[in-house]
Hints:
55% of the residues lie in helices and 11% in strands. By secondary structure, the protein is α/β, with parallel strands linked by helices. The longest helix has 19 residues, at 247-265.
Amino acid sequence: MIKLLIADDEALVCIGLQSMLKWEQFNIEIVGIAHNGAQEEEMIDTLRPDIVISDIKMPIKSGLEVAGSVRQKYGRLPLFIMLTSYEEFQYARGAIEVQASDYLVKLELTPEALAESIRRATATLEAYQSIDSYPKLVHRGNLQAQRDKFFIRLFNNLFENKNQYLLQKEDLEVELSEPAYLVCTCRILGPDTVPPRGDKLVALCSSTVQMAKDTLSSISACYVTSLDLRNFALALPVPGTDPQLWMEDIQKLLADMASVLHNYFNVTIIGAIGFAVEDPYLLRESYLAARKALPAAVRERSFVFFTEGEAPLQEQLLFDFSESRSEIRRAFEEMDTRALYTIISRMIEIFDGRADLLVPATDAACNILYMATSLLADGENIVEQIFEHEPEGYRAIYQMHTIEEITGWLIQFRDGCADILSTRRQSYKEQVVKNVQEYIKRNLGTKLSLHQVADVFNFSPNYLSHLFSKVAKVNYVEYITEIKITAAKEMMLRGEGRIYEISQKLGYESAFYFSKVFKKVTGLSPRDYMQQIEADTGNVRGT
Length: 543
């Protein structure tokens, strides 16, 4: 997808731009919002967007100054679309001097005008698209959605092991290096003027979460994760595990955020704060503590802190997923609808009519929901389709208060999955293998062991190996070798270094081992192959 950065010192303008178009229809992901020129340039340096929509006049540094500075550093990309409230020629001339893709007047801006400007920019982008001129142009699509899934897995203890967590954390460039972290679960309440379902509610809640991200963007290593339509979670850095070190600051931070969101959207934000942990891998414990305190936050319509005075966390009646997790994972991985149907039916039998098991039943349903959206390539769309006729869709699970409602939700999920997944098995598997192949091509400089890549994609190594061989018609190791040797031949043809340098770039432990593999695949040593290239080039020149 194409990365887009929006920069304007007026928050309402930023929100308007976000909602003016359905950006996914243009294959565009909004990766950041900047509110002054200095922040804009910093985000361009770190996020490397392909297109920047920038206000010309902003605090600290003007949009024109930023564009000029970025042009000197990175050349013709990213493309700039300049916005202004003024129609004076000097601004248009300035936009021309920094080679802006377009120049738009805010008062005249319509969805049609913006869409046309974006189409021109994307057409220009396609013409410029080149790895050599802009190395970051090829990137993983929808990074924010993948990070949301990462934190959902983390909060709900869905990683198979810590190594899998570390690999995905590195792959998604999630920075968690502060002394300690805590989780705050937030809920959006009101306003009564918005219907309980429909596009207006979706727009309100998504804009509210986006504004929360913008409000907290100045805090390093702070992550905002959408849990569902009305609920989101904050992973916040703190100086240590002692609440006295951070409680007052966190309380003020959340109150300020809630005030901003109320002023813009007339919503009330309430939430619960868990305890701090030094190891981010244990954030699930803080998340569970926050969830335990959330009912008190709902009663008081405010932010509350989890306290040890409440029942110890380990005594909560939560669903034990340890025995079922591997079964459910395998069922989702292999699209085994029969096994999935059996597992969920077993849970429904356990919970049916047991009002005392409302909490573990809710947790079971939520865990299955999170696994579906995390493990299935199109998971969120699948569950949305299952609950498309329900108020608030699948997210209605958070409004359920009886065991009958929860078991009804599980029955609908079970039956819907059986219907939809049975028709998608082959196309889904092909998409998984395609995603793995694209990941391999983006990471040729690493060893790319089967276990490592399986962890990145949240699969078991045995399953990924079997699936890859069946769909790609070549085993995993052979594919890696073939892709790396093809890349090596292209690098030799372009003269991109000596043999040992090429072997290093492709992640081989030594030039000797690289040469051995190269000869086995091509029949020639790397040296002989390079000499052959030189001879062929000389023959062409001589003719």
